[in-house]
Write a structure and sequence with these properties.
Layout lengths: L1 H16 L5 E3 L1 H14 L2 H10 L6 H4 L1 H5 L5 H6 L4 E10 L7 H9 L3 E4 L5 H15 L17 E14 L10 E5 L7 E10 L5 E5 L2 E7 L5 E8 L5 H5 L4 H4 L13 E6 L1 E8 L1 H7 L23 E3 L3 E8 L3 E14 L7 E4 L4 E7 L4 E8 L8
Parallel strand pairs: 2-3, 10-15
Antiparallel strand pairs: 1-17, 2-4, 4-14, 5-6, 6-10, 7-8, 8-9, 9-16, 11-13, 12-14, 13-14, 16-17
């Protein structure tokens, strides 16, 4: 999972550097979409995708990673009050084209759904795709596609939905939530709803990575965790993030402060949604061939279209909500293919300034979602 996390952090940093304000993405959602294209590509198009995805296995084996994250017991776990982790993929294809058998067999093996779609009726195609995304994301993601995306002759569209929900192992008390100061810059501040918990049982892990303090909060079933990364006072989040890579994230437990006193945790409530056109971001990371006319998708398409197609756009939407009881996060990715602290003392984790966060599958260490909070407002969109 290290290579997936490394790709994800690179994607996050590229997006964060290109815009101001809050950010939420699901690196694994984008990775899943690109993995499907990589499995169907060949030649330079495939080589470029595998390089950026940091994958050194056969492209068909790459699809196996899409299945390994989610177990069949998700619905049962949720029924028992456990966490929810969903990663679903679909290929919406023009019934007039022929998909290669090897590609469909590999995709079937990992549960990728295939749906014939009449792209010559763009409104119907948009409705079908958006309805599927809304249903799988349980209403968290809506209206990611647009009928205008299908103005060129469309061969197929690849979609992914990633969902992660969980209840805290040790929830915050709603009565403890109050307006507290958040310093959104060195010179300005605001008052935001901030949760508080005093923990003497050390149910959450707090530690230090160089100039970053971190807090790891597990769900009640220990399946998922959410980590918050807070730069030292006086150091910017952007500066601190330069030292935070996949290796550091993989060694968080080595940096936990294990002999501390009472833990005092201050954490803002927040809810936000971002939608990105990720094609320019992916180009910056080094993926160009799949967006050019004549991209090689000969492992996916029949000979008639394999060298005359290209991916016209790539879009990603993600939402996250953090509150006293737990968190909910959902994301969708979409791309049409067209033709041409000190020992023994209390430790205080006070997220009263910009911070970075991740949501992780504890069994694999996979980063499912990540983002930053610059101003912890409750956003509807």
């Amino acid at each position: 999972m290290k290579s997936i996390n490394s790709f994800g952090l690179g994607l996050y940093k590229q997006i964060a550097d290109s815009r101001d304000g809050n950010v939420i993405i699901s690196p694994f959602s984008v990775y899943s979409m690109l993995a499907i294209f990589a499995a169907g590509a060949d030649g330079n198009t495939q080589d470029e995708l595998l390089t950026v995805l940091q994958c050194n296995v056969d492209a068909n084996e790459l699809l196996d990673s899409l299945k390994s994250v989610v177990t069949p017991s998700d619905s049962a776990n949720k029924a028992k009050g456990g966490s929810t982790l969903v990663n679903k993929n679909a290929v919406w294809f023009n019934p007039d084209i022929r998909l290669r058998k090897k590609f469909t067999e590999s995709a079937d093996r990992v549960g990728i759904q295939f749906s014939p779609t009449n792209f010559s009726n763009p409104i119907d195609a948009e409705t079908a795709i958006d309805s599927w995304i809304t249903e799988v994301s349980r209403g968290l993601i809506t209206d990611i596609s647009n009928s205008g995306d299908f103005t060129l002759p469309t061969l197929l569209t690849v979609t992914n939905v990633t969902l992660a929900n969980g209840s805290w192992l040790n929830p915050f008390g709603e009565k403890e939530t109050a307006l507290r100061v958040f310093y959104d810059s060195d010179t300005t501040s605001m008052h935001v709803p901030t949760m508080y918990k005093q923990d003497s049982q050390h149910m959450y892990a707090i530690g230090k990575l160089d100039s970053i303090m971190f807090l790891v909060m597990s769900t009640s079933d220990y399946r998922l965790s959410m980590s918050f990364f807070l730069p030292d006072s006086g150091k910017s989040l952007a500066s601190a993030m330069t030292d935070l890579g996949a290796d550091a994230l993989g060694a968080l437990q080595d940096s936990v402060i294990r002999d501390s006193g009472i833990q005092q945790i201050y954490l803002p409530k927040f809810k936000l949604r971002n939608t990105f056109e990720v094609k320019p971001i992916l180009r910056e990371l080094g993926i160009n061939e799949m967006f050019k006319s004549g991209a090689d998708f000969s492992n996916m398409l029949s000979r008639n279209y394999s060298n005359s197609s290209f991916v016209s756009l790539a879009r990603h939407a993600a939402v996250v909500s953090v509150h006293e009881r737990g968190f909910e996060a959902g994301a969708a990715s979409y791309a049409p293919m067209v033709v041409s602290a000190y020992r023994g003392q209390p430790i205080i984790f006070n997220a009263n300034r910009p911070f970075f966060f991740t949501i992780v599958d504890n069994s694999t260490g996979l980063i499912l979602f990540c983002g930053r909070i610059m101003r912890p407002v409750i956003e509807n969109e």
